[in-house]
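ARCHIVE CARD
Drawer: 12
Card no.: 0347
Subject: one protein chain, sequence and derived structure
Cross-reference: see card 0346
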Amino acid sequence: MALTAFQIARHLGIATPPRDATFPAVCHDTRALRPGDLFAAMKGENTDGHAFIADAVKKGASGVLHEEGQPVPKGVVSLAVKDALLAYRETALLWRRQFSYPVIAVGGSAGKTTSKELIAALLRGRWPAAVATEGNKNGLHGIPHTLVRLRPESGAAVVEIGIDEIGTMAQHARIVEPSIAILTSIGPEHLEKLVDVDTVEREEAKLFEQAERTGGTACVNCDDERIYRSGLRLSHARALFYSLGRIPSGHDGLEGKLLDDRLLVKFPSGGEEFPLPLEGRHNALNLLGALTAAHAAGLTPAEMRAGLATFTPPPGRSETHEWRGVKVFADFYNANPVSVGASLEAACRGGGARVWACLADMLELGRFEEELHRGLADPVLHHGVGHVLLFGPRTKHLEDELRRRGYQGELRHFDSKAGLTAHLRAGLRAGDVLMIKGSRSMAMDEVWEALQRG
């Protein structure tokens, strides 16, 4: 598969270059560039790709996509545009359209990266070279980076889509053109720009709308009321529903039942069991959603089982460890009310153990910041968490709410991670359960690392 300079120019609506060239790949990083590639020079947060044009040409680039006014060495095809990032994204769409195999898009407020990694593992049961978003590169740059990695031998792809403001889902979904779309959950996320949860619901649902426009399949989580509502609005897309309970009558899909460390799934062909690679009901639901997407892509249960065996948990998400006899849920990569509630449920599942919830601020919640931090008192009280240790100025709202509601367990707020870590080291004992959670910029991984050093 390849693109030509004339094809790209026509798609971008720019002047056709004096001569054509065929590009076997599109590359934005000179370290990965191969002779003949098209080099996409863009301005990033830390570097400007235009500074590497000469290096790209020396390494054999036969064309350069760049912004107007930037010098390009003679002898290579120049594709000059007003906005290089926008042009790169459009070129990625053109590249994606060369492939008719399954392209699965994953959106939602929480659980995206875990679900993406689960789907990628399942796909490897049939297509070992399946492409997946690297890490959580799920935005303006990361999505096209994933799309231009598609190759004929890939067989399938899974693309994670993250949104942080109104309009971004429509922009991202349009260039992905998913043949299968799945939303993991809907809840408060990036409310500084997404305003409120109703807006989050409308924006995330645009992923289903794009799948509907292109004749794709929507995988609909019946256990999330807002996603289920979005799924019911679909009239032209194929919809596959999934639930850890019962799918409403009249819908096709997969039903799952949680059995300790296994998930029993009812397929059209019969019941199948799968090991749970991650703990917690929310992760069982993530697995069921991933299985539904793989089912939509045509995989057999046997292929799914083989692929699942290759799964590796993404760092900082639902990791479980043992430290001096303490079970540690290291779930510190990010946090919002949905994911914190799910993590608390997982930590308290089974009962009997002393549970320590080590919580830091949830960020980007806009005008709902105080309300949503106070709202964490609900799952803390519901699950009977015995020790609540807090860090960050926003968690003072949770501290105040728990005191107001007569919380009887240990409740402390710390001004430093060192003080928090010292208290954990002194108080934890074998048989306890510790959950560490907070938004990424709160760097709660430092608490876990410090514990291990002690």
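Annotation on reverse: The chain has a mean pLDDT of 95. The two ends are 54 Å apart (CA to CA).
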